[in-house]
Structures are given as structure tokens and as C-alpha cells.
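Thread: Modeling a multi-component assembly for a lab meeting

Hi all, long-time lurker, first post. My supervisor asked me to bring a structural picture of a complex we are working on to next week's group meeting, and I have zero experience with this. I have the sequence lines for every component (258 residues in total). Could someone generate the structure of the whole assembly? Inputs are pasted exactly as I received them:
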Amino acid sequence: MERQVFSYSVVRTGSFEDVGLISTEIKKKLEELGVERNIVRRVSIICFEAEMNISLYAERGGNIFVAVEPDKVDIYVEDDGPGIEDLEKAMQPGYSTAPLWVHELGFGAGMGLPNMEKNSDVFEITSELGKGTKIHSVVFRNKDAA
Amino acid sequence: MRLKDIIEELGLKVLAQGDVDREVNWAYTSDLLSDVMAGAQPGDLWLTIQKHMNIVAVAKLKDLAGVVLAKGVQPSQEVVAKAEEEGIALLLSEEPLFELCGKLYEVLRRKD
Ligand SMILES: Nc1ncnc2c1ncn2[C@@H]1O[C@H](COP(=O)(O)OP(=O)(O)O)[C@@H](O)[C@H]1O
Ligand SMILES: [Mg+2]
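Re: Modeling a multi-component assembly
Sure thing. I ran the full set together rather than chain by chain. Output:
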């Protein structure tokens, strides 16, 4: 199988109704390509949390790119603002700046970034205040494939 | 245990049918989407009081057997339609979460 790349824009609509649509789309694509179920599961979690964070925090939306290769799946997530002030804090389970009404909807439990890291074999995040946030996650297909 | 047997045992109202012949492995209860994403297993039934659109995406992404809404919380017609479209069973119980969990636990334990 050759390298297959899919790109999606996460558009901010002001409501969260659409959060999950892109991840669901990505999941279906990976299944069509015959990617192992356990790998699809992990990529789904990573993409859902990425989608949710862009919808919650990035005023101008962002992009998710997924590249499927025989031995791995790369996920690139980028947005252009507002950036994260303290990355170390943001990576801690339970840390969340989401407002109460967002928490009441079951979003924003401070578990998003930790979940993404836990499900990645490689997880790199860079962020600059006022500029934006970039994440590169890799899930290897040879490990725990089932 | 099959989903349709659980529907009958617990007297659940079927909002969207999904796959009623599906085997239900176990269940997961949480109102936090990230927690369900992290903790639920494929084939689990998800018990919650969240009724917005995103529960369908979470159930789909995690390949859950279905979603049971507790305490009689009614989702919008759009949510029901989305669940139907995605083949996700959406069920409703009048009982509060605690009672619902207790009863389902008994039912699922019995068959073990
Ligand atoms: N793309 C982003 N842009 C700006 N801030 C972000 C972004 N993603 C995460 N954050 C910040 O990091 C915190 C932790 O993120 P996360 O672990 O996903 O938890 P949650 O979204 O539940 O708050 C968020 O509350 C927010 O302050
Ligand atoms: Mg988050």
C-alpha cells in the first residue's frame, strides 16, 4: 500500500454539534484501507481529542492531516491561535481552562492531551502564545496490531 | 447477552434501533466524553445523561453497542436521526443513573 494522505479542516461554528464528524470520517477511511482495528481505535481517540481542542480553543479553526503508511499512521494537527502558555501544565491530566458550561456538556475534562499522548507511540507538541499549536503524533502499525 | 434481551429486561425505550442482535460485553458509565474515549471498550453499552449530538460520534468512534440515556433525558430529533444514520442504538430509561447501573450490572453479571 502506498502512502495515503487525507486532510480535513476543522471549522469553528460556535456550536459543538459537529465535533466528532471529522474523526468519524477518518475512522471510516482507515477501516476502508484495512488498517488494524486496534490502530484505528487509537487514531480515533487522538483525532477526536484534537478535533475537540480546535473547536474549544482555536478561534479560527485548524487542520488535521492523516497519513497512512504500511508501517504507521501519522497525524498532524495545527491551528493558528491562541497557543498554550504552559505546555507542561496543559499536558497534566485534569488541567483544563474550559469554562463551566463546557464541562457540563461533558467536554473539557483535562484529559484530551494526556489521552492523545497515551495513545501515540510518538507525540510532539509545540505551541506559541498568540501564534498557534502544532501536534505530530505517530501510531506504529506493527505494534499490538490486531 | 444480546442488546435486545437487555432492552427487554430493563424495559428500555428504543429511540434509534441500531443492531439489537449485537452482543453486549459490558457497560461503561460516564458523562465525560474524554473519559468514555479513554475507558470504554468496544461492545460496551454506554450509560449517561448527556444527550447532545456528540454522544453519537463517541459511540461510533468507540464501536459501542449502544447508548442508554438515564433519567428520561430526551435527545433532540436531530440526535435520534443521526444515531439512526450511523446505526447506533439509542435507548431511554426513566430511571436515574444509579438505579439503572445497578440493574444492568445484575443483568450482565447473571450471564457470566
Ligand atoms: N489547540 C489549543 N489551543 C490553545 N489551547 C489549548 C489547545 N489545546 C489544549 N489547550 C489548552 O490545554 C488545556 C488542556 O487540554 P486538554 O488536555 O485537551 O484538556 P481540556 O480540553 O479538557 O481542557 C486546555 O484546557 C487549554 O487550556
Ligand atoms: Mg481537550
